[in-house]
Structure formats: C-alpha cells, structure tokens
Amino acid sequence: MIIAPEAQRVVLLHGLSRTRRSLARLEAALREAGYEVINWDYPSRRHSIAELVVLFRALCDELGRQPKLTHFVGHSLGGLIIRAGLAGWQPTFALGRLVLIASPNRGAGIITRLTATRLLADLPRLFGRPALELGRDAAWLGSIGMPAAEIGVIAGTRGFHPLNPASWLNTLLAGEVAHDGTVELDSAMLPGMTDFLSVDVSHTFICDDERVIAAVRRFLEAGRFGE
Q: What is the gyration radius of the CA atoms in the chain, in angstroms?
C-alpha cells in the first residue's frame, strides 16, 4: 500500500552545537514534498548523550498521541540519538525509515586525538558536553543496537571547510584517511544499513547540499538513494 506524504511525518534532529536552523533547507524541501515535518531543537551542548536520549524518547511519546507513519533524519550527533533512542525500544507510532547524515557511528578521530592532549578538559566548552563520549570506537557506540527500520547513511568526503574548526585540525592530523572534516568516512558507515551514499561535501553544511536533500527525499519515498 502506498502512503501519501501527507499521511507521513518526518522528525529532524540537528547535530552537536547546532540548532534547528541548520536543517531549515532540508525542512523546507520535505514540507514542499508534502510531509509533516518536526524540526526538533534540542539542547545538544548541555546534556550527556544518555540524557539527550531520554529527551528524545519523551518527544516520541508525545508523537504517539497522534499516530502517524514517522520517519527520522539526523545530522551527526542527531543520528546517534535516533539510533540509541529507537534501538530496543518500541514507539507507539508506526516507525518509518531512518536517514543518518554524517553521523559518527564509530566515533570521531579528532575527539580521540584531542583527549590525548591537555585540551581534554576544554572539550565540553569547545564542542559541548557530548563530545567527551564521541571518541573513536567508544565502547557505548558499539553497544547500540539497530532500530527495526530501513536505515540510509549519507557521508561527506570533503575534508576541509574554512568555517569548520575541526577540519583545520583534521587536515593537519588525519593523514590520508577519508573524512568530511569532522567524521571519518568509515565511521559513518553502519553494519546492517540499507543503503549508503557518499557526497563530496563537508560535515558542517552537508544538510544544505541539494544532492543530499534530494537523496533524503528518495530514501524516505523508496528506501534507496538511487533513482
């Protein structure tokens, strides 16, 4: 059975130290396609990831009061919150598809490198409290299960952008490893994902890219990024 976009809902989660405004272009495109869109503005800097997951599940409980097929799209940390919040937990609405955009599913090497320096104590001030939990291959990341949904993963491969401070450090320290300025390409990949797409764009502004926006729409419609 084909469900019209008007009968579906998409929940957007921004990344660490960002706001809902960073997803404004994606939000507008999805509204234009007919979806109800909830662009959730959560306090990404102030709480641990476990606390953010609690807030996310409270949002899901509110959504359950108006049952509707519900998709989720998360940028960076937002994708991790979606995974952790929905894995092993049954929402009261019909769960649709998930799109994770530049999410550090295995953590970020830049965080690991910084924790090995005297900047460790400054990480929450620089990037927000969750940064302390986002080191490369952190144990909790490996323990997150897979939500019972089709999952599309989009990753960037443009390693430098002048407005992304992390990309300056990664340009100097990451060597030949492919990354988007913040997250390594292999970290974005997720075992068991339904489809994967890499785009030559940087981490910070990946959700503004027209190719990415079009790919999100295709995945929500068909469960694949391809035409």
A: 17
